[in-house]
Amino acid sequence: MTIVTEYDWESDTWTHPTGEHAARAAWREAVQEIAEKAKATLPDCAGRVARAVQMVLNSDVELLEDGKAKVASQSNGQMVYYVVDNECTYKDYAKAPSNWG
User: Fold this and answer.
1) Cα within 13 Å of Cα(26), Cβ side
2) Which of 37, 38, 58, 85 is most open to solvent, judged by the fewest CB atoms within 10 Å of its CB?
């Protein structure tokens, strides 16, 4: 069984998208490229970088208009942390190498 998901007015046909949109694919590639640079620059934080990539791609990080970032807790679905002036309110922040979240 096939579900029709879109109608293309230019070609006058129903389409069945199977992959990511180009913009989404470019976003994922850019995030991965930055992650690789971060891992090379901060090898002690490679695990944290990998986890951060997952959080960004899962939309668990939101950049706010006032320059802050809102980050969803990974252990408590009701908790949100804020990054302000390169400091974060979550408990692990002080334990991170060089305070890199």
Assistant:
1) 3
2) 85
* Model pLDDT for residues 53-69, shown as the tens digit of each residue: 998 888 888 888 888 88
Q: What angle do CA 62, 100, 54 make, to 5 degrees?
A: 45
What's the average model confidence in pLDDT over 27-43? Answer: 92
Residue 24 has pLDDT above 90, yes or no: no
For 73-88, write each residue's pLDDT tens digit: 877 777 777 777 766 7
User: Pairing between strand 87-88 and 80-84?
Assistant: antiparallel
Question: Rounded CA gap, 65 and 85, in Å?
Answer: 14
- CA–CA separation, 95 vs 26, rounded Å? 33
